[in-house]
Amino acid sequence: MVSVSSLEHCLHQVADPEVPALSVMDLGIVRSVRLEDGVCQVDLSPTYTGCPATERIERDVREALEALVGAGNVRIRTVLDPPWTTDWISDEGLRKLEAYGIAPPPRRTSDKRSLLSIHKPLACPRCRSTHTERISAFGSTACKALHRCLDCLEPFEAFKCI
Ligand SMILES: [Zn+2]
């Protein structure tokens, strides 16, 4: 018998195609998982509008869940409201990002002061120096920007805060 927790457990193994260190659960784009009469209903939120990964994520989620509930028994609904922001990324997800060498986005809603610090230099994920500069608004994907640490001279990517 498949349970909602086994479905959620399964979704923890579905990686974000652009940041494989993060699962779709870490990313916070899975809004709800329900199970009704053997049919799995998932509410998914797209991350960045027009992010090319969105379709791939939906396909990966469907394939992973179909392995448990059977082909044709997964319904995916796209939820646009409330919109996804980087604040939906779990604390575990932020830690994984940093461990992966990507500067995590600053929390916005939990700390009003961070509204003022958005344009402050980010901390280098390697040496923690805040002596960093942004090189390019776009990294390897549109949702990341490219920064460089002026102390260890390593370039690093930062997840854009939206
Ligand atoms: Zn550094």
Total domain count: 2
What is the structural class? Answer: alpha/beta
CATH topology descriptor of the largest domain: GMP Synthetase, Chain A, domain 3
Ligand types: zinc ion
Instruction: Please count the helical segments.
Output: 5
Low-confidence stretches: none
Q: Which range does the strand content fall in? A: 15-25%
CATH superfamily of the largest domain: Fe-S cluster assembly (FSCA)
Task: Find the count of extended strands (DSSP E, 2+ residues).
Answer: 7
Helix residue percentage: 25-40%
How far is it from the N-terminal to the C-terminal residue, by CA?
39 Å
Strand order of the largest sheet: 4-7-6-5
* SSE string: HHEEHEHEHEEE
CATH class of the largest domain: Alpha Beta
Biggest sheet overview: 4 strands, mixed
Computed over alpha carbons, the radius of gyration is 17 Å
Keywords:
single chain, binds zinc ion, GMP Synthetase, Chain A, domain 3, 162 residues, 3-stranded mixed sheet, alpha/beta, 4-stranded mixed sheet
Your description of this structure?
With 162 residues, the protein is of the alpha/beta class. The protein has 2 domains: 4-78, Fe-S cluster assembly (FSCA) (GMP Synthetase, Chain A, domain 3), CATH 3.30.300.130; 101-159, no CATH class. It has helices at 4-11, 24-27, 53-69, 91-99, 113-117; strands at 30-36, 39-44, 74-78, 102-103, 132-136, 144-149, 155-159. The strands form 2 sheets. The chain has a 4-stranded mixed sheet. A 3-stranded mixed sheet has the order 1-2-3. The radius of gyration is 17 Å and the shape is elongated. The structure holds zinc ion. Zinc ion (ZN) binds at residues 124, 126-127, 129, 149, 151-152, 154.
